[in-house]
UniProtKB/TrEMBL annotation:
<keyword id="KW-0547">Nucleotide-binding</keyword>
<feature type="region of interest" description="Disordered">
    <location>
        <begin position="456"/>
        <end position="485"/>
    </location>
</feature>
<dbReference type="InterPro" id="IPR004504">
    <property type="entry name" value="DNA_repair_RadA"/>
</dbReference>
<keyword id="KW-0863">Zinc-finger</keyword>
<dbReference type="InterPro" id="IPR020588">
    <property type="entry name" value="RecA_ATP-bd"/>
</dbReference>
<dbReference type="InterPro" id="IPR020568">
    <property type="entry name" value="Ribosomal_Su5_D2-typ_SF"/>
</dbReference>
<feature type="region of interest" description="Lon-protease-like">
    <location>
        <begin position="353"/>
        <end position="485"/>
    </location>
</feature>
<keyword id="KW-0234">DNA repair</keyword>
<dbReference type="InterPro" id="IPR003593">
    <property type="entry name" value="AAA+_ATPase"/>
</dbReference>
<comment type="similarity">
    <text>Belongs to the RecA family. RadA subfamily.</text>
</comment>
<feature type="short sequence motif" description="RadA KNRFG motif">
    <location>
        <begin position="254"/>
        <end position="258"/>
    </location>
</feature>
<keyword id="KW-0479">Metal-binding</keyword>
<keyword id="KW-0378">Hydrolase</keyword>
<feature type="compositionally biased region" description="Basic and acidic residues">
    <location>
        <begin position="464"/>
        <end position="477"/>
    </location>
</feature>
<keyword id="KW-0346">Stress response</keyword>
<keyword id="KW-0227">DNA damage</keyword>
<dbReference type="InterPro" id="IPR014721">
    <property type="entry name" value="Ribsml_uS5_D2-typ_fold_subgr"/>
</dbReference>
Length: 485
């Protein structure tokens, strides 16, 4: 008989440790290691004699398959993110910071669905029935026949749901408040959250109802505890937004029934969330086109083109190690663009602080933003404003070459629709999609863009970013002084 082997498994991240520790070395969480006996498990060597299993039916890949039956929520931006509506019998986790508007969004979706005649049950574990009613009143959806309860016990919730016809949608706000008597742990702990979520997900599969679990996110961006829930559910959506801004972005990070790169855009108003069908207009709304350091990036979010302003501020640094700060973009990617500007385009950014922000609080993941970032940086350093009616997109490689990006035609179309007459894009994208139409400038080297910006500056002794040996810091200060009345 083999000796039983004991391992300690982190309930937060799943890391395995040979001995107990107060803190998981992998994810840094405290008190998450739990003893598990692995003898007889996969790779665990000979343990218990295996029980005889039954023969399961094996299927071919090809065969009859129906498209999953979906219920459109009636909120277009939400349906876009879920891939065309809620799939019956699926479980969805919606994560986000407290106060971002998760409950508001779900109450609105519940009301819209209930008005269409579907049975919707909204279980609030955080707010009393009166509070939810008050919110519904404020949003003007009180008349919708949503079944409401304030409850946290999984057993009570399941018994209640099973007592009537199966609902189309069940909302559990939030998963951290749920508790089940089958496990002995406090509500909110990983064990409780996992067991409760499992019970509710099982209910979804059995009844055909769509179950939505709301989860709060910790400061570092992880759904607290429910990390473990992420792989159990069919879809994980994040609801995010910047503190000072009114609009919110719903983003799919996992979706078994649809694409994960779609975003839904909403605006928080006094009467609930308003859909924003054309986000570009919103993101460009507060633009000051005449200021140096701003470039409009023609990006793609899933299948939808989105124009957004990239803002850069390059300022002489008093520090030995200049500061680099980024909001809404990848810091590593910024370092790369800075390095390419320095070594291939003769732009001296070394002794400067560099700040970069994506306007409006949008977060961009596309490498296609490289060119717009470079344009904004050069514009800020040289003090030369970029043309107000021009968009930029293209990926920059480490060699300083500008590489083609996908969906060039769609990006250009969106730009044209919003009144942008010019575009700077990769030469190869230009060849493929447009036969060199007026206003389109194709470039294959980043140095070409830098030279064009420098040449576009007024001839009144304005500093050119590319002047070898130039001291942009002093020159820029002189320019600003001369500009101010
Ligand atoms: P809420 O949905 O409670 O957030 P979560 O469930 O993610 O914690 O949103 C609360 C915030 O939304 C609160 O700060 C007030 C604001 N809000 C509005 O601005 N307008 C509204 O109509 C509603 C209902 C909320
Ligand atoms: Mg809430």
């Amino acid at each position: 008989m083999a000796k039983a082997r004991v391992q300690y498994i982190c309930q937060n991240c799943g890391a395995v440790s040979p001995r107990w520790q107060g803190r998981c070395e992998a994810c840094g969480e405290w008190n998450t290691l739990v003893e598990e006996n692995t003898a007889g498990g996969i790779g665990g060597g000979p343990g218990r004699a295996p029980q005889k299993g039954r023969v399961v039916e094996l299927h071919a890949l090809a065969g009859e398959s129906r498209t999953p039956p979906r219920i459109a929520s009636g909120i277009a931006e939400l349906d876009r993110v879920t891939g065309g509506g809620f799939v019956r019998g699926s479980a969805i986790l919606i994560g986000g910071d407290p106060g971002i508007g998760k409950s508001t969004l779900l109450l609105q979706a519940s009301a819209a669905l209930a008005k269409k005649g579907e049975r919707v049950v909204y279980i609030s574990g955080e707010e009393a029935v009166a509070q939810v009613r008050l919110r519904a009143e404020r949003m003007g959806v009180s008349a919708a026949p949503v079944a409401l309860a304030a409850e946290t016990s999984v057993e009570d919730i399941l018994t209640t749901l099973e007592a009537d016809r199966a609902p189309a949608l069940v909302i559990l706000d939030s998963v951290q408040t749920l508790w089940t008597s089958t496990v002995e742990a406090a509500p909110g702990t990983v064990t409780q959250v996992r067991a409760s979520a499992q019970a509710m997900i099982r209910y979804a599969k059995q009844s055909g109802a769509t179950v939505i679990l709301v989860g709060h996110v910790t400061k570092d961006g992880q759904i607290a505890g429910p990390r473990v829930v992420e792989h159990m559910v069919d879809a994980v959506l994040y609801f995010e937004g910047e503190g000072g801004h009114h609009f919110r972005i719903l983003r799919a990070v996992k979706n078994r029934f649809g694409a994960t790169d779609e975003i839904g855009v909403f605006e928080m108003t006094g009467g609930g969330l308003r859909e924003v069908p054309n986000p570009s207009e919103l993101f460009l709304g507060e633009r000051n086109a005449a200021a140096p350091g701003a470039a409009v990036f023609a990006g793609m979010e899933g299948t939808r083109p989105v124009l957004v302003e990239i803002q850069a501020l390059v300022a002489p640094s008093p520090l030995g190690t200049p500061r680099r700060a980024v909001v809404g973009w990848d810091g590593g990617r910024l370092a790369m663009v800075l390095a390419v500007l320095e070594s291939h385009c003769g732009v001296k950014l070394g002794p400067h602080d560099v700040y970069l922000a994506v306007a409006g609080g949008l977060r961009i993941n596309e490498p296609a933003a490289d060119l717009a970032v470079a344009a904004a940086l050069v514009s800020s350093l040289s003090g030369i404003a970029l043309p107000a009616d021009c968009v930029y997109f293209g990926e920059v490689s480490l060699s300083g070459a500008v590489r083609p990006v996908v969906h060039a035609a769609q990006r250009l179309k969106e730009a044209q629709k919003l009144g942008f007459a010019k575009a700077v894009l990769p030469l190869q994208s230009l060849d493929k999609d447009q036969g060199g139409a007026a206003g389109l400038v194709g470039i294959d080297q980043l140095a070409g863009l830098v030279a064009a910006i420098a040449a576009s500056g007024p001839p009144t002794g304005r500093p050119a970013a590319r002047e070898p040996g130039g001291r942009p810091a002093e020159r820029r200060r002189a320019t600003i002084a001369a500009d101010e009345p």
